[in-house]
Amino acid sequence: MKRECLKYQSMVESFLEGKLSGYDRQNFIEHVKECKTCHEELEIYHVIFSVIEELDNDSGKETSNYMETLERKLGAGGKNDTRDKRADAAYGFLIAGVSAIIAGMALLLFG
């Protein structure tokens, strides 16, 4: 992992909460679009934040495409489109599994 990655990974929560200033936000987005490791870290946090938000809202409505909402936050062309489609599918299943575990834990703790 690159030294600069630590800087940007420490900014993930602030980005997802909309707390980054224009300059920091732009640098963060540019880095995440180019760095696969940081983009994957952002994806994981985004899914966790989204599941927690859904549980907090208790609306019963689930977001069907977490990655689509993340790409909207990153702007058009969010990540490099050269990634292998099979890897994307496998990663999607991983994220879905993590989401299910978090949702189950939240239900056990708060339900």
Note the main sheet: none
Structural class: mainly alpha
Number of contiguous helices: 6
Q: What gap, in angstroms, lies between the N and C termini? A: 39 Å
Quaternary status of these chains?
single chain
Global outline: elongated
Helical proportion? Answer: over 70%
Based on CA atoms alone, the radius of gyration comes out at: 15 Å
Query: Number of DSSP strands?
Result: 0
Q: How would you state the average pLDDT, rounded?
A: 76
Total domains, how many?
1
SSE string, helix = H, strand = E?
A: HHHHHH
Ranges with pLDDT <50 over ≥5 residues? 77-85
Strand-residue fraction?
Answer: under 5%
Ordered list of secondary-structure elements with their pairings:
Elements: H1 3-9, H2 12-16, H3 22-34, H4 36-57, H5 66-74, H6 85-110
Helix pairs in contact: 3-4, 4-6
